[in-house]
Amino acid sequence: MSVNNQKNDMLALLKDAGIAGLIAAALALPLAGFKTFDVNGTLTAEPRFHWVLVAAIVTFVGRFTISIGQRTFFSSFSKAAGSSAGSIGAFIKKNQTTLAILLLTAAIIFPFSPMANRHSLDLAVYVLIYVMLGWGLNIVVGLAGLLDLGYVAFYAVGAYSYALLATNFDLSFWICLPMAGIFAASFGVILGFPVLRLRGDYLAIVTLGFGEIIRVVLLNWYSLTGGPDGISSIPKPTFFGMAVFSRNAQDGLPPFHELMNIEYSTLNKFIFYYFLILILALVTNFFTLRIRKLPVGRAWEALREDEIACRSLGINPTNTKLTAFAIGAMFAGFAGSFFATRQGFISPESFTFIESAIILAIVVLGGMGSQVGVVIAAIVLVLGPELIRELQEFRMLAFGGAMVLIMVWRPRGLLAFREPTLKLDGQDKKGDGT
Amino acid sequence: MTLLDVEHLTMRFGGLVAIDDLSFAAAEKEVTAIIGPNGAGKTTVFNCLTGFYKPTVGRVTLNHPTGPMYLERMEGFRIPQKGGVARTFQNIRLFSQMTVLENLIVAQHNVLMKASGMSIGGLLGLPSYRNAEKEAVELAKYWLDKVNLTDRADWDAGNLPYGAQRRLEIARAMCIEPILLCLDEPAAGLNPRESAQLNELLLNIRDKHNIGILLIEHDMSVVMGISDHIVVLDYGRKISDGTPEHVRNDPVVIRAYLGEEEDEELPPEVAQDFPESVQKGKGA
User: Fold this and answer.
1) C or N: which end of chain A has fewer Cβ atoms within 10 Å?
2) In this structure, are A188 and A126 located in the same domain?
3) What integer is the mean pLDDT of B68-75?
């Protein structure tokens, strides 16, 4: 009986592989079956059917091997990988505070370590911008559950606000920074009012459209934004009015490095940027951790869980969503103005849809609502493609494959768990530190 | 004293008349039950009262201590916020990924929001906010104790068994400190022992907290056990209104539930619900 069964199984597998081979042959016929020549200006084709045969055989054998493998080796392998991924998650959950402290210490020590050079610091700043954007979007998507596909629009508003204010009105970075945040937040409110009645997919589409509108306006409003030429020579940040690591001193004041007797070097300038974005990102993080435990933060999470129940408890859904949208936008505005001042040049090209997609991927991959998850996901998603540059054209393939594997093994994100905002009898004495 | 006064309430969805010229009143410190066969429009009445639907015609007056309020004119979320009308849902709507305690704290959102000074005082960690939060936890603890969930306060609400979820939803509604509590089938899916506990809880709420309860229920042991006043709906119309005793013996009600023919042998579970009236009818 079982022998018979096995035989039938084999036949089924062979049949399956045969069909796959036939499909491959059909596909390969137009793709690889002919080689085209240019003979005296006319296009001629020469058949080379052996390639079709090769494609069919390779597919047949490949499919058959995979099917056999799935029965025996792969199933146990993927199970093992899945459970080990699960246990890593549990381990991280247990040691979340320690992990957060370790990450923070590493972040502070990093610029003084021998690993720090122009390239690595630049990369670290790049990663930190995404960490900050991820934390900002986490408020909107992770806590309030509003799927925002146009988050980069607020980043762009922040960057352009800083660039325009600083170049036209000579305002310092520290005045422009809050103003850029306020501008971005007001854009969040303006967008939010009409669209926050929408739910789920509809909201995603409208925010996607809004992101594109902002980019197209920036591209075409030539007199204000310079269109595709962008805005260049954006002033660098100062430190209490003193130029920081710059050869041209601010009027009347000595450059900061001379005052502090630090040697002038471009490396120090990069370290300054590094700490600036680190502080901005940490402010975002602490703000989120704190507001989660306030009524408005709990209302965001409740709204994510069930909007109708929220209404029945007297929570104003529109206002609550608007605050989430505005606060998320504000942090994108801060990140945007940092981006503008570090680059010294911005153009609409920096604010395309793919940026929104990457930021959203960071939040989703990290595990919605998890602050440490965002850091890990940002490192994986931003640093990953840089580290595997040697793979050249296969880089994106490897990257995509890695994402698929993560989503297979941890479908709810790397660190998908939620820390309660308060526990009974004040067991909540120590913060969760994430 | 009348707490809620519903006058000529009509709700049409296109050509369908879900509620047709319904008038009834619910008194303070009383349990008013709305019963009726499936599809009679009971939940639609609730949705009109709690602002989820805007009634086509009619007036809903709530006699709030601060003065009468016309609920049909108020925005949905203001009815619980300003009017103090809380409700539960037929299909439980908890914040399932939040803990039991958090569910009860979220219900006190408006009080806490005010105490946190639009979040700014809360962000700064002002003592006034911290005290308000402590009070909120105390209120939550009180209700946890009432519904017997104290030992599971830190569970995710979604992981609770069904009966406990029902009780938690009632506790959550009570945490907004309402003057009128609307319960949509609170006993659905409960076993007889749990139903009995529910009766006790609801009577306790009515007597100790002095609020009105509006109840939709199919479980006659609950309805007959605790109601002071019953309104019977059929096809969107009120067919009977009065004390449990009156409704139980009203031939119109019996016809609506059991159909016209009276000679047919009743299924035992129905006979249990209407023992006297039916047996009287049959005994003749």
Assistant:
1) N
2) yes
3) 86
Considering CB atoms only, which of A294, A301, A427 is closest to B123?
A: A294
Asked if the Cβ–Cβ distance from A291 to B119 is below 8 Å, we say yes
Cα–Cα distance between A71 and A302 in angstroms, integer?
44
Q: Does B126 lie at the interface with A, CB-CB under 8 angstroms? A: no
Q: What are the distances in angstroms from CA A6 to CA A3, A9, A19, A71, A72?
A: 5, 5, 20, 12, 13
A423/B50 touch (CB, cutoff 8 Å), yes or no: no
A16: nearest Cα among A55, A61, A79, A77: A61
Please indicate, yes or no, whether residues A269 and A338 belong to a single structural domain of this protein: yes
Range(s) of the domain holding residue A401: 96-426
Q: Write down all domains in chain B, each with its CATH number in brackets.
A: 2-84+178-248 (3.40.50.300), 96-173 (no CATH)
How many domains does chain A contain in total? 2
What value does the mean pLDDT take over residues A280-298? 91
| Cα–Cα distances in angstroms (integers) from residue B243 to residues B26, B214, B249, B258, B272, in the given order | 12, 14, 10, 20, 19
ipTM tops the 0.90 cut: no
B81 at A interface, C-beta within 8 A: yes
Is A429 an 8 Å CB contact of chain B? Answer: no
Interface test with A, best of B90, B106, B150 (most A CBs within 10 A): B106
pLDDT in tens, A212-238: 999 999 999 988 888 888 888 888 877
Residue in B89, B119, B182 to test binding to A, most A beta-carbons within 10 Å = B119
